[in-house]
């Protein structure tokens, strides 16, 4: 037998284990490292990278990506610190979540090394109401979280005025409803986002950019409104990042700023049009719109915060889902001492 005829079979024999490994362990996209000094970012490049993220969750316990959308300081950072770390199974719990913060562009990360928020700030851009900038910021958070960890399955968007209403353990069990799977696929789970079709001023909101601007991509019959804050599964998060068709409409400037709240329109409309059967149509963030001012919900002050109030805020008022509320807003920064006093005995005691 010639030397050449011997080498070929030998090479194929050596290659078989490598082929088997690649076939059974799909190559995942590289993790995107977070920036320690958020300044600017090329959104187009970021979204293009994120569109190649896998929908399949690899072997391991699925995680929740907590995405903080802020334009001021993280007023309730100490409370959230307790939420993420005050557990009897702290080491296990730490592996079940990731944190991403979109702050104002010139924010300086001054958190101590022991803080769960240290080095979790992503490159950011300025945001303001009645503009598509809040949509862009949310898509930026989603894209970063999709790239950062393929185990991220649920993506929870909260603000600096949000507080948790339960322990992290309760939140995790509620979302996954059973022991986390170790398989490469998770069963299809719904996303929790408010989707409304019969709200007052629907038409005024729809024509805020011009009477026929949204057509034909977004007919009025498909237009929806809802809460800015949500919990999306990985499939829907990837759907948001990949979208170009609806985004080119919702990114247009508003002519009537009094009825234009793009961040409350884009996400409910997109998911309602693309995958309505896997959307709960309800948010898990409790908000009180009684006495709202300037398009903002009611803000709670320290005198209102009691153990009874926390328990009341948890109770679902949804007609379609009885899942307990997991978060609530808006709370004034002055509420922090009161909330910290009752954190262990009330908020995190499920």
From TrEMBL:
It is found in: Membrane. The lineage of its organism: Eukaryota, Viridiplantae, Streptophyta, Embryophyta, Tracheophyta. Keywords: Glycoprotein, Glycosyltransferase, Membrane, Transferase. It comes from the Eukaryota. GO terms for cellular component: membrane. This is Glycosyl transferase, family 14. It is a single-pass type II membrane protein. One of its GO terms (molecular function) is glycosyltransferase activity. Transmembrane segments: none annotated. Pfam families: Branch. The keyword Membrane applies.
């Amino acid at each position: 037998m010639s030397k050449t005829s011997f080498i070929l079979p030998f090479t194929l024999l050596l290659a078989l284990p490598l082929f088997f490994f690649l076939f059974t362990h799909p190559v995942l996209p590289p993790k995107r490292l977070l920036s320690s000094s958020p300044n600017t970012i090329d959104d187009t490049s970021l979204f293009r990278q994120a569109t190649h993220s896998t929908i399949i969750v690899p072997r391991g316990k699925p995680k929740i990506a907590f995405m903080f959308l802020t334009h001021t300081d993280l007023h309730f950072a100490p409370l959230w610190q307790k939420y993420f770390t005050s557990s009897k199974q702290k080491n296990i719990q730490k592996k079940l979540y990731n944190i991403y913060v979109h702050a104002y562009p010139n924010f300086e990360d001054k958190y101590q090394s022991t803080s769960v928020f240290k080095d979790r700030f992503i490159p950011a851009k300025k945001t303001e109401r009645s503009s598509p900038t809040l949509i862009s910021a949310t898509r930026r958070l989603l894209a970063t979280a999709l790239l950062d960890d393929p185990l991220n399955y649920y993506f929870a968007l909260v603000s600096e005025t949000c507080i948790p209403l339960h322990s992290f353990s309760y939140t995790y069990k509620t979302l996954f409803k059973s022991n986390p799977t170790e398989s490469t696929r998770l069963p299809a789970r719904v996303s929790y986002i408010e989707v409304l079709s019969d709200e007052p001023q629907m038409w005024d909101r729809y024509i805020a950019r011009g009477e026929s601007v949204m057509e034909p991509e977004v007919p009025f019959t498909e237009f929806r409104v809802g809460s800015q804050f949500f919990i999306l599964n990985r499939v829907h998060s990837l759907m948001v990042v990949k979208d170009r068709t609806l985004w080119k409409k919702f990114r247009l400037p508003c002519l009537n700023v009094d009825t234009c709240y793009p961040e409350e329109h884009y996400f409910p409309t997109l998911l309602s049009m693309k995958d309505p059967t896997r959307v709960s149509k309800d948010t898990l963030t409790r908000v009180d719109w009684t006495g709202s001012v300037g398009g903002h919900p009611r803000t709670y002050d320290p005198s209102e915060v009691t153990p009874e109030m926390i328990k009341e805020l948890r109770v679902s008022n949804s007609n379609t889902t009885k899942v307990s509320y997991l978060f609530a807003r808006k709370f004034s920064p002055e509420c922090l001492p009161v909330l910290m006093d009752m954190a262990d005995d009330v908020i995190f005691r499920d």
